[in-house]
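Good morning C.,

I know you're traveling, so I'll keep this short. The sequence:
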Amino acid sequence: MSSIATNQNETILYYNSNTSLGKQTLPYLEASDRKIRTIDISKTNVTGTQWASLANKLNIFIKDLVNKEHPDFKKNYKDSTNLSEDDWIKILNANPETLKSPILIVGKKYYLIDTPSKVAPLLKTEGEDIDAQNPN
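The C-alpha cells, ready to paste straight into the viewer:
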C-alpha cells in the first residue's frame, strides 16, 4: 500500500528548489496544462514511509535516491557504506540537497528525472501512450 495519494489527473513533483536540477525541472511542469502538486523537500519534510514508498514505486533502494557524490554527503558521511534504510532517510531529510534527482509522478507512474527535458514527453495529454517512456 502506498502512502502517497495519487490520482490520474494530477502530476506530483518531489524536488529540491535549491538545486539546479530542481530549478530547471519545475518550469517544464508549470508549462503543461496538467494539474500539478509540488513537494519542495528543502521546505517540506518527507516522512520515512513516503521515501520508502517512492523508492518502492521506482523499483530502487532508498539509498539510490541519494547522490553519494554530492559534497555534503562526502563531507558528512564519507565512511558510511553500511547504512540502514532509516539512516538513508535521515540523510535525505537532514540534507535535502543530496536527493539524486527530482521524482515525477504522472497519474500512477513514477519517474526519476535526471534531465529536465525528459519531463515534457511524460506530460503528454491523456490518451497518449506514456508507457513507451519506461515508467517504473
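Safe travels,
E.
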